Amino acid sequence: MSTLSLPNHLMPLLMHIEPLLIPAELYQLGDTVTVTVHSNEPLIHIKTMTKECSLAFNFVAADEDCPPPTYQIWDQWLAPFTELAELQQKVATDPSLVVCGFPANDGCVDIWHHQGQARAVYCRHSGASEAQRAMLLVALALDYPLEDAVVLARAHARSYQDHNQRAQGDLIWPTEAKVFPRALTINYHQIKQLGWLTDDQEVAPFAALGSSKLGLYPVLESADWVERVLQLGVKTTQLRIKNPQASDLEHQIQQAIVAGELAQAQVFINDYWPLAIKHHAYGVHLGQEDLDSANLVAIQQAGLRLGISTHGYYEILRALEYQPSYIALGHIFATLTKEMPSLPQGVSRLALYQKLIGKRVPTVAIGGITIERAAKVWRTGVTGVAVVSAITQADDPAIAVIALRSILAPKVEIMTAGVCDDDKHYAL
Q: Does pLDDT of 416 surpass 50?
């Protein structure tokens, strides 16, 4: 169970917080959140399964006995405004500082700290301020990371302003793409006008998949496994070799690429994009951290398709700016095949991510997906389902492939991006 403790002066936020917790609990978006009110100090306190933090809006230390909060939320602005580039530098050097609703270029910017840098999203309309504050606190109490809490808060603020006549208890969780902000990357066309600083190079859209109906998507640890599943009729797969020092790394990559060409299949190489370019791979799959180091322009100009891993709202918005060939959504369930920095997303959050992306780009769900779990993952409307141990650790991989394809195949031709209507639990 998680707790959200408000100081007495923020009690008015309860009228926004409580309606948000209803759909969060109904659709299992996180642990149950208990809300309390205290009056002995000005800070907000949040405790979840993975974190404990304090927050304050526009914090001013009243006395020496009051410790600084984990996060100082700046969300009130008086002219003249500080330049966006200056705020960017402040946030980059101060992990506690979160800027929300900074007026810029007829819209607003939200900024937070990430590993020594500042990240940001931009929105044309700021929305309702009380709704924004409430969703920020609720999302953090539901154990969303800070970046996702900021994104959800802005989307809800806009959605609330557009639909403020909802009855209490109705679903008010933001789901429409139009209310979500844009991630500030070099590919956002107004980034220079906003004054956001970046050294990245703009990249053109990546080539589309030969078949966007991905269905079964095995992620495999060796070229021999790639060949094996291709012989079983699989048409999309990925070679993911974890050890970059493997003596036969380049040979395995080349072997997997050739196998894909012979089978007329879509074979992606995880991480090793220079070798993928060298040997003319069909595509490359990159994690979020690789987007900062890989030469995306070189990958795009070589004609390779690009898949990008994401683990939540902000990373999805960031990936969309690069117009990749597909987006991976994970990890859905706990997995032992890879050390993960985030929590399992669960199927209900997956359904919300899919609804946000819609038909803009193909999607692949990944992480802890077994034969038994594949059907409910598929019902969220994703384009593909990635599996690892469901095949590689099966008693008979051929039978496992047949079972998985039988689960996924019926909807390959008729599937539409979005949440399936045949399962109300995911019809968010």
A: no
**pLDDT over 80 (residue 417):** no
Q: pTM to 2 decimals?
A: 0.93
Q: How far apart are CA 21 and CA 303, in angstroms?
A: 46
- The answer to whether 390 and 396 have CB atoms below 8 angstroms apart is no
Q: Which of 322, 336, 331 is nearest to 364 (CA)?
A: 331
Instruction: Write the CB contacts of 201 (distance below 8 Å, at least 6 apart in sequence).
Output: 186, 296, 297
Closest CA to 399 of 264, 259, 229, 267: 229
Give the position of tokens 């990245």. Answer: 200
For 91-130, give the DSSP string: HHH-TTEEEEEEEETTEEEEEEEETTEEEEEEES----HH
pLDDT digits (tens, 9 = 90+) for 167-202: 444 557 899 999 999 999 999 999 999 999 999 999
pLDDT band (50, 70, 90) for residue 423: very low
Q: Which of 72, 56, 70, 46 is nearest to 141 (CA)?
A: 46
How many residues appear in the chain? 428
Catalytic residues: 240, 309, 338
Nearest-angstrom CA–CA distance, 6 and 10: 6
